[in-house]
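Worked example 3 (structure in, sequence out).
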């Protein structure tokens, strides 16, 4: 992939949200989803937005996708972003969705198994969020032949897996982003955590197989839109 452009001024985010506040519509905002940050300062403005939205709608949730870089895919984060997520975004979030490497950074220790991932997730929960989604267990999973995720709360944990989709050396980007977005949508629609996890796993798999079938690098979310809404595949989550 190739990325160009400049880092958006942090104040731009605040100004957009203030525009929504000016027409008295923040009370209809049910969630804030943050992902890749161009700077740590952007993160500080996002937390200000979270406070502003929750003041207007106390039931609104903050879903933090703590992107901390993926050099193999050309994704590099600015200095201070990882520290921002550890020190500020984590305790402010209601739901946080790290991959395995990000989970290790957040809990400041290695994670090498599903059991350790559950334990690490609960360490994060003790600091603020109610729900932790580990978007990709990778080497900490039960099988290197499957794509595995974990959803953890204070009292429950669910493990789920689906087939890997082989794209060779050029893996598509944005899988984590669409996973976070779809999970948040399902939860806002009223799905249980388990049902949301199962739907998202199937929906993302539909996107992946559609993308491979079309021999594309960009995720084919439009081509797969009907199967995102009603996946043809089903994967069952196991309660641990």
């Amino acid at each position: 992939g190739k990325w160009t452009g400049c880092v958006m001024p942090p104040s731009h985010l605040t100004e957009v949200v203030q525009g929504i506040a000016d027409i008295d519509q923040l009370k209809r905002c049910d969630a804030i989803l943050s992902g890749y940050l161009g700077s740590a300062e952007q993160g500080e403005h996002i937390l200000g937005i979270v406070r502003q939205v929750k003041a207007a709608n106390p039931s609104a949730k903050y879903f933090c996708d703590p992107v901390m870089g993926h050099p193999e895919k050309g994704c590099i984060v600015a200095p201070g972003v990882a520290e921002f997520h550890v020190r500020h975004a984590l305790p402010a979030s209601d739901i946080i969705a790290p991959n395995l490497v990000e989970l290790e950074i957040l809990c400041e220790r290695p994670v090498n198994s599903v059991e350790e991932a559950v334990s690490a997730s609960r360490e994060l929960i003790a600091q603020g969020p109610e729900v932790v989604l580990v978007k990709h267990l990778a080497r900490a999973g039960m099988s290197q032949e499957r794509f595995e995720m974990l959803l953890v709360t204070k009292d429950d944990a669910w493990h789920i897996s689906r087939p890997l989709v082989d794209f060779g050396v050029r893996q598509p980007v944005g899988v984590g982003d669409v996973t976070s977005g779809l999970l948040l949508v399902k939860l806002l629609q009223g799905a249980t955590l388990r049902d949301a996890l199962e739907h998202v796993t199937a929906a993302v798999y539909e996107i992946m197989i559609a993308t491979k079938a079309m021999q594309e690098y960009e995720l084919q979310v439009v081509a797969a839109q009907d199967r995102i809404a009603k996946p043809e595949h089903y994967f069952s989550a196991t309660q641990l």
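Notes: Residues 193-213 form the longest helix (21 residues). Helices lie at 10-22, 40-56, 81-92, 100-107, 114-125, 175-188, 193-213, 225-229.
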